DNA sequence: GTCTATACAGCGATAGAC
DNA sequence: GTCTATCGCTGTATAGAC
């Protein structure tokens, strides 16, 4: 402690991530650009663009259709000043009613935007990402994005919610399987971790969203909606929590305080969103290995003693 | 999946956190302001301002003294344009040499800034925090901050490094204690988690810093310094990693892949920076309980079967 | 050593052309 | 439905007063 170690030397870092200048009229021929700013194995996102466009997502998306109200990025609690619409009113022009018309095409466009947004938010976080960033990743301008989403916060919320819905869809059906509580918990954990790995970008946004939700102060009108989001999260964690209690009562698990255990358990299961980088070769097997190990760690952490 | 669950309903949220307008000439009488934007138990930071100003930190800080080079917040890899100094040159005016002069006073001021910065970065992240935010928390203007730190990135880096140094100082001495590898690992883990809880703001910044480091692309000049930071992190995790291997060889631990295990193990131990909120009453006991539980979870996760 | 004043770029958001 | 152009605020950083 007395002698200064090597890493104590004067040092400087840059933190923001370099990106290309915004698109204006210079058209990008290839759809995928920006790869030059990423180093080889630094996460070109776990899911390749095309592969992700699964029926599951389409189904989910169609049940999700609409987002109202352009939330404002105001930093004040009191009378929200800023350069956004002063009335604080509904936007997004009641998309639900339009859904019957253009339907599929519009949704497909929305989905593509969500996908790109997820990747941007994953890489730079909410405040670090500009709407231009997302547009640039899509090879278009922000006009397109603002046509579909009322604000940047709306866009983020949409990604956030889609991520949550995918989790529910994957995990909830397993809740009432047969067998002891531990076994069900294990299966659900496995499915949850699989989500983290296969839809990593979205799940990372869910994580960030939770954090923002936890510390975000709200204007009265927005409180309701935020509460609803938080409750949905709570409902999700309860799926696991109840099984944890059951399994402990059965003598299959052994942990101390339930709250602490839940927190650590989830952080554990979610951890791949921070460190997982898919290896190109043998993707499937790679993922399975990681999932298996993470689940094992998490279950052991709860005091599970094996089958 | 077919019937839309309640949380599928249209929703809107705001994400950014409201703050008071920047300080200009309106002087704040009390040093601590801004409390009105926080809800009761939402993290008024684990360490109270005064209590944190410990000899340990002072010692660490004096061995740390100097930061060179104003890192730039440029978003381009190629010729860095922007409104910062174009030479990309050294700043911070060789503070090490000045240390003998004003010494203590200057350092105390620096430390106070670091403290406030840690709390701001903890709450809003790097890009979400403005230099004005930090100044406002201190009840001063950004002039003071820019006098001590060349740029926002410099400030962040200083907080980051101080956090890391505290970890090293707490954990490294335990490396060569007597006893089996598992026992030592357990002790180190406990000390690490204690750091997470007692210096939470700083540790949260360390976490964010690691993430930024992982995905940040660099201009050639800055690559070196960044690499150094990363290596210091690596060195830290190696402290644990080697013991993990030893203990596995001893038959005291049982995990699969070392890399995955390390990642999950750390994420686990670090988790309090995300969810821990100190309860005012009986702080000490509260912390100890949390620490004990987290360590237990983490060790169990590695396949530890108890004493 | 800290404050005031100011420059200048970036970004969120809108209007209106196509 | 997407693009262009533009507005106005926010935020980083600097210069110079005190």
TrEMBL record, chains A, B:
Segments for region (Disordered): 82-106
UniProt GO molecular function: DNA-binding transcription factor activity; transcription cis-regulatory region binding
Superkingdom per UniProt: Bacteria
Signal peptide (from-to): none
One Pfam family cited in the UniProt record for this chain: TetR_N
Keywords: DNA-binding, Transcription, Transcription regulation
DNA-binding region, residue intervals: 130-149
HTH tetR-type domain mapped to chain residues: 107-167
Protein name: TetR/AcrR family transcriptional regulator
Origin species: Notoacmeibacter ruber
The organism's taxonomic lineage, starting at the top: Bacteria, Pseudomonadati, Pseudomonadota, Alphaproteobacteria, Hyphomicrobiales
């Amino acid at each position: 402690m007395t002698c200064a170690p090597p890493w104590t030397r004067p040092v400087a870092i840059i933190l923001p991530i370099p990106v290309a200048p915004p698109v204006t009229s210079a058209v990008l021929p290839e759809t995928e650009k920006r790869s030059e700013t990423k180093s080889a194995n630094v996460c070109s996102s776990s899911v390749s663009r095309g592969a992700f466009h699964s029926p599951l997502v389409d189904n989910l998306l169609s049940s999700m259709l609409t987002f109202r109200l352009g939330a404002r990025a105001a930093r004040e609690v009191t009378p929200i000043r800023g350069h956004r619409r002063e009335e604080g009113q509904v936007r997004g022009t009641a998309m639900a009613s339009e859904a019957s018309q253009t339907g599929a095409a519009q949704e497909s466009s929305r989905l593509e935007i969500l996908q790109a947004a997820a990747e941007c938010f994953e890489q730079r976080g909410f405040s670090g990402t500009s709407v231009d960033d997302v547009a640039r990743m899509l090879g278009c301008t922000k006009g397109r994005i603002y046509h579909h989403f009322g604000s940047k916060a709306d866009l983020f919320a949409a990604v956030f919610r889609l991520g949550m819905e995918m989790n529910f869809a994957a995990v909830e059906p397993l809740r009432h399987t047969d067998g002891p509580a531990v076994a069900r918990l294990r299966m659900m954990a496995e499915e949850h971790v699989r989500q983290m790995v296969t839809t990593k970008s979205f799940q990372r946004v869910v994580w960030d969203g939770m954090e923002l939700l936890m510390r975000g102060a709200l204007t009265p009108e927005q409180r309701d909606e935020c509460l609803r989001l938080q409750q949905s999260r709570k409902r999700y964690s309860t799926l696991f929590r109840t099984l944890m209690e059951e399994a402990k009562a059965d003598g299959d698990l052994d942990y101390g305080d339930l709250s602490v255990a839940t927190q650590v358990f989830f952080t554990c299961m979610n951890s791949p969103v921070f460190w997982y980088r898919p290896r190109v070769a043998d993707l499937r097997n790679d993922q399975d290995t990681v999932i298996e190990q993470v689940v094992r760690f998490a279950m052991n952490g709860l005091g599970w003693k094996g089958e």
